[in-house]
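User: My collaborator and I are trying to settle a disagreement about how two of our proteins should look. Neither of us wants to argue from intuition anymore, so we agreed to look at predicted structures for both before our next call. Could you fold the first one, then the second, and keep them clearly separated?

Assistant: That sounds like a sensible way to settle it. I'll keep them separate. The first protein:
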Amino acid sequence: MTRAVTLQSSRAHAFALAPSALPPQGYDAFAARWAECLFENTFGCESTDAARAKQYGEHEAWAAGLDGQDVDHMLWQVDEPLPPTSTKNKFRQSVGLGRRPGDGATELQMGALRNSYLVRGSTVDVFRNVDDGLDDSEQLSLRLRDASGAAFTPTKALLARGEANLLLLTPNAEVAGGRSHSVFQLDIETEKVVSRWQCAKDGVLIPMLDIVGDSKSAQLEAGSTFMGLDGNRLARWDLRDRAGAVQDLASPTLGYVGGHDFARGTGFSCMATTGSGDVVVGGVDGKIRLYSDSTLRQAKTSFPGIGAPITHVDVTYDGKFVLATTDSYLMVISTLFKDKNGALKTGFTGKMGANIAAPRLLKLLPHDVARTGGAPFAKARFTWLTEADGAERWVSVVCGAFSVVWNFRAFLSSCAPGSGSTVYLDYTLVTNKDARLVDAAQLHGNFTRGSAAQAHLVVASDLGDISAFMGVDE
């Protein structure tokens, strides 16, 4: 469709134009035409009533929000504190830890206690958490080897058991003709891999694309269970055997203690958990599903996609807001709604149905898209909380050689219903010179007590560089 292609650039442009820049009738006509072309670009079909009903179903508020209109009863901001006076931070490098020899980095695992970790191929580097940054004076690197002495390279790491263990999800190269994964347990105190488990259900090896803690604070607790995800499966695994004893290498199968296998085609791609253990799942179809901790068989609420696959997902500690990453934009969704009795709930605990709120998008301005070389977004995260007494202040994401930081409190005010804004473009770019970043995470509040209003970032590049940055109010 030629007319759709001509308007395939950033949706942000339409809403960056002030209505006063055009005559009222001209602006309205432009906005309506923009919405039609956006729909055609996203779904590959003409924007008709029938096509919109097929894509959005009962969720008319969602569709209206994508057209720049909010339905009056939608809940977006409820009793939120006022944002800081500055919407941005300037950033200065507080610690530059230099390049690590060997493989480039793939993942950061931030600790709330003594250490944080950088995964580099078959090596894990250990850093001491200090105020406003990290310290590597101990120069500790742990080589990942199985019981036979062979190196292995994990695809996902997860701190567990009071941050005494690092669980490492790793493909099984020896399984021919199919996918399967093992979970290795790295004991931090002994600096050794002490156990390896197969992911299996009913005696059949199954793959896992992602693993996460049972809750936002699970890594600080002594629990033995964690969550796993495959394209059509949610699972809760237990590191203990049925008799309750901790397993070792002689008992290599994880205990399957709950979950559900869904019909093929669900296309799950990533997951995250709230402070109470509720689960949000993103999909390759762009859909976002919310599951209560009490049942994983059916989503309490499902949000339609708007075209792009979800590559990473996060959620606030209280479950009120979901943050989804796609290559070209971040999507923030409010899960709040009032039930028929007027009680305030989230979509994790009740079915939102037609009450789902319109999404908000976080994007880059065109000149910054060019500055980043059109690099995709990756691994967007809220400020990391492990207790209810706090509020997420920042959103950070990787984008090529940059990390991008948004003031989440200012965003909530600017994108409240009735503001006329569904795209938020006020952010700070933090550069890491020429190296491509693979991860950017925020320090835990235990190490930002004196400057909690500022963002504190730790970034890692594909060359093995790692640096910490501290925000300074403008």
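The second protein, kept apart from the first:
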Amino acid sequence: MRFLLTVLIALLALTSATAVLGSPSTTDELIHEVENDLLPISAPKSELGRLANIRDRMKQYGVPGLSLAVVADGRIAWAKGYGVADIRSNRAVTTDTLFQAASISKSLTAVGALLLVERGKLRLDDDVNRHFTSWRIPPNTFTASHPVTLRTLLDHSAGLTDAVFDNYEPGQPLPTLWQVLDGEPPAHSPPIRVESVPGEQYSYSNSGYTVLQQLLVDASGQPFEGFMQSEILRPMGMMHSTFEEPLPESLLPSAATGHHAGGEPVPGGYRVSPELAVAGLWTTPSDIAGYIIQVQQWHAGRRGGLLSSQLVSQMLSPQIAYAGLGVVISGRGEGARFGHDGFNEGFESSMVGYIHHGEGAVVMANSGFAYMLIKEVLASIAHVYHWPRYGSANQWPPSASITQQEVAPVPRDMLSAAAGRYELDGDNVIRVFAKGGRLYMHWDHDGDAEIFRVPDGRYFCAPLTFSELGNPFLRLVLGAPNTVTEILADEGRRVLRRIP
């Protein structure tokens, strides 16, 4: 999901920056520009074009803490932390504060898989069942014409069950990875099986990276977290990163607490799951920036790295749709980029790096519904550092380009008409309510997100706008007298249906 925060929180503490590139005065000036050049994604007509400060936007979105790192000329130009790692203790975010990277974990997992390809232990286009020594993908009619391969696992085209995984508080019993793969208790997700011909279509798949996790265990002969630590994270210099969950006691003082939109801490501080390859990485923006730099260098042909330029070229090439191998590919030519977003309960993040230039950035937040703020920060960095063709029409997803949207007040009668409970995709119940003359959606485990009205009478809301919808606008459909009965995507597809 892509999310919006609307509830204000307490005054946010500011930590010191670390400057690595250029003279301190020059770097300080660039930092100042980035911090003050945020263009809000939405604004009333009277404020269109007015730039904003990063701390003010954090307050507006209700984000307790934010951390970022900027890559320029192939080096970390600077990194900086803002706000608090934990709203209860008021502990400040520093550049060493650990955040859950969520699905950015997939990009590092992909490096682990490609390293085993370099070493001849795996092949991109082999049937992966040849390399399992424990669990295997059950064959069926779909795999008869095309097997599941490492490539299809990495580019989300393996045709596997679209599973939604549970997460747990630290200390709660976890299912084993085998139990998740076979849908056995205490796992609540269905068995992971092939449901369409592998390689034929893209479908974002957490299930695929769960299978990949077991494949790396079998092919390396090591526990996943141990393999990633010794063979990927340490050699890449990512000394503030780990796939170990629950977090060791020694790392807890350095870890941010996850928060729901508006500042409520996630129970237990963060969530745990056995699907480490999917979303289990704890890290810092500087460590992820180091990953970006090394991928750029490997692609350019630097010798001595973990991966060859030939293999990285495949990694950074669209395999199917916009998917590379473990990364999302966007832009073209000089504007070609690789990256990934991440969404865990209480944590959201985004990274982007240029394929042919040493530019990029990483932004991480310890809050749900922080995605719009993250995109505003990335757009400011892009502007200040003159990123080529960032936010152009060929960027994926379409909604990621930062184009300011004029918003208008929600009519008073619509505030009352829309209030109620709605069903989302048959699985989730969303509560819509009015507060202070504004309209909000409440999402369990995430918090409150504002529903904005645009001047032509349509609406948008971040959790729906920045998800699967190519067209971000919504229509609120009046049925019974003064009652919204459903909320539709602008193309007419139902998104939310009112329930009693």
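Some points you might bring to the call about the second protein. The chain has a mean pLDDT of 90. The chain has two domains: 100-400, 408-499.
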